[in-house]
Amino acid sequence: MGSKENTYEAVVTKEGREPLLQVKGLTKYFKVNKQHLKAVENVSLDIYEGETVGLVGESGCGKSTAGRTIIRLHKPTAGDVYFNGEDINQYSGKKLKQLRREIQMIFQDPYASLNPRMTVEDIIGEALDIHGLARGKKRKERILELLDLVGLDAEHISRFPHEFSGGQRQRIGIARALAVEPKFIVCDEPISALDVSIQAQVVNLLQKLQKQMGLTYLFIAHDLSMVKYISDRILVMYLGNMMELASSDELHENPLHPYTQALLSAVPVPDPKLKDRERIVVSGDVPSPLNPPSGCVFRTRCPHAMDICAKQVPEWKEVRENHFTACHLYE
Amino acid sequence: MSNILEVKDLVVSFHTFGGEVQAVRGVNFSVPKGKTVAIVGESGCGKSVTAKSIMQLLPKPPAEYKQGEILFNGDNILAKSERDMQRIRGNEIGMIFQDPMTSLNPTTKVGAQITEGILKHKDVSRKEARSQAIELLNLVGIPQPEKRVDQYPHEFSGGMRQRAMIAISLACEPDLLIADEPTTALDVTIQAQILKLMKDLQNKTGTSIILITHDLGVVAETCDHVVVMYAGQVIETGTVEEVFETPQHPYTKGLMKSVPRLDQDKKQPLIPIIGSPPDLMDPTEGCPFFARCEYAMEVCRDHNPSFEYMGGNQHASCWLHHPLAKASE
């Protein structure tokens, strides 16, 4: 990558800028049989223009719900989301539709997120029609341009989703998201359904597009090595709660929270020389979000659990510079 | 070193409405006693079909074994009758399936699913079988096994179901255990638990394991030997150290480069393998990797390279290693 293309990275490192997206105390409960399923609990996060924030955690930790709630696919139980300084929870009707042009999503399963009865032209064109962006000849031109952008051929335009491989379908999903020229894209596990050799193709495409168009990503995933590679900062979640937030290098070099340490240590490394390294294997399963543990939610599996962990929810604080965590070990 | 399993020139096809799918096209590999062999490859490369052939679990038709033999302890499995196979399945060869959510019977208690194999293959009473089931649940690390043995699968979490699956597959102390993507459906912290459990059990019982996976990290951490499959063929084999440190086939090299390592420089783009695997309905005569290979030569188009010895334990099939080819790097 040449130095010319790095202009947007420069924006990321500039101090004192306004965040593109501000999440404050976001909470989302679902009602299940008169009980509350606490999917997301008090999540706060600033996302700056041009950066990629990774959101990692195990299944059921609320990362997808958090992503969907941030872009108003779910209505939050509590908390605010500001986009460009405006509270988007107050939006409705026209304003909400306008917001959808700014914020888009790429879904996990490329087999389920494309309508099997629509051609590629209609799938991508639908976004243009809804927002009245292009009509007639222009519409087709724009669709061809988008196909070219994501590395598909012009001849693909009249085909149906079943005629494509998983990687190609994910490219269609990306083209659809880009059709409305969004600023911010939530990528909800965009590569986890793809084969290894195809994953790298899609990740490279996402990075190329980010540099070309100055996109901002929230990248949700459970594959830590891929998240480290693509993200500038990483937020680790467990059972709906924020565990740790740091730049991706810092998080991997100095993981503070015992959960992050266990998660990093559990990732299998494709290098047989490291086979016998010391590993932290946490015992047990993730507790039910219907009835999460008191105090720190990780205490039931934490190797360092203390008395205070059951009594008090640990405070979210900056332990090192720009490195936040919620753990009683650091008080 | 003796081999518990030898697969020789196996060819398996499926007859479908659209034509014949050549899922496995001449697979050769062997499993040494007490070792773990990984079969790696992308979806559709024939790794699960190979595994199910060993267990004779493919319905015929549409499947057809066109050629080759599978020698288990020296006996050809493909020549055995269904009756004989029933004696081998679950007893001498155990299998762990990918998805613990769907491979357990939801209407039968976990204990009954474990004792089913024991009662079939061994001359024991129901009471003894039950106590063995409790012991097995304890062995695979399920707390309160006396209570759990009478529960149904839906009362177990994902990781616990996979533990129960392992308990079922180990019930008769098989000589060979086939694990078909045993951790793909699980989270990383649970995956680490299950892989550790399989390793511990192998150390205790001396079982040989075939581990089918697409996760190179899992291979590097748990296996001794690797079989790399592509488009129904084995393109490279060797010990884990050989294949990861000196991969000989361009596809293996490509796989190693396309996964980010934790020490990967972020400024360096990942090097993907361009294109996608060929259609096995109508495979080419030449090397199956030809269309995606950066070193492709004229000869690769029409002639499939033979499987050549590379030194050590390593074999690969690539024309680059032919004496007449130019040095690749």
UniProtKB/TrEMBL annotation, chain A:
Alphabetized, the UniProt keywords read: ATP-binding, Nucleotide-binding, Transport
Keyword hit for Disulfide bond: no
* Name of the featured protein: Peptide ABC transporter ATP-binding protein
The family this protein is said to belong to: Belongs to the ABC transporter superfamily.
Q: Which residues form the ABC transporter domain?
A: 21-264
SUPFAM superfamilies referenced in this protein's UniProt entry, alphabetically: P-loop containing nucleoside triphosphate hydrolases
Any idea which GO molecular function terms this record carries? Answer: ATP binding; ATP hydrolysis activity
Origin: domain of life: Bacteria
What's a BP term from Gene Ontology annotated to this protein?
Answer: peptide transport
Pfam families found in the cross-reference section: ABC_tran, oligo_HPY
Automatic annotation (TrEMBL), chain B:
Fetch the InterPro entries from UniProt. Answer: AAA+_ATPase (IPR003593), ABC_Ni/Peptide_Import (IPR050388), ABC_transporter-like_ATP-bd (IPR003439), ABC_transporter-like_CS (IPR017871), Oligopep_ABC_C (IPR013563), P-loop_NTPase (IPR027417)
Membrane-related topology note: Peripheral membrane protein
Q: Which residues form the ABC transporter domain?
A: 5-256
Q: Where in the cell is it found?
A: Cell membrane
The UniProt entry's sequence similarity note says: Belongs to the ABC transporter superfamily.
Q: Which GO terms describe its biological process?
A: peptide transport
Would you tell me the Gene Ontology cellular component terms?
Answer: plasma membrane
> Entry's SUPFAM superfamilies?
P-loop containing nucleoside triphosphate hydrolases
Pfam families recorded for this chain?
A: ABC_tran, oligo_HPY
Q: What does the record give under GO molecular function? A: ATP binding; ATP hydrolysis activity
Keywords of the record: ATP-binding, Cell membrane, Membrane, Nucleotide-binding, Transport
This chain belongs to the protein called Peptide ABC transporter ATP-binding protein
Q: Which NCBIfam families match?
A: oligo_HPY
Extent of the signal sequence: none
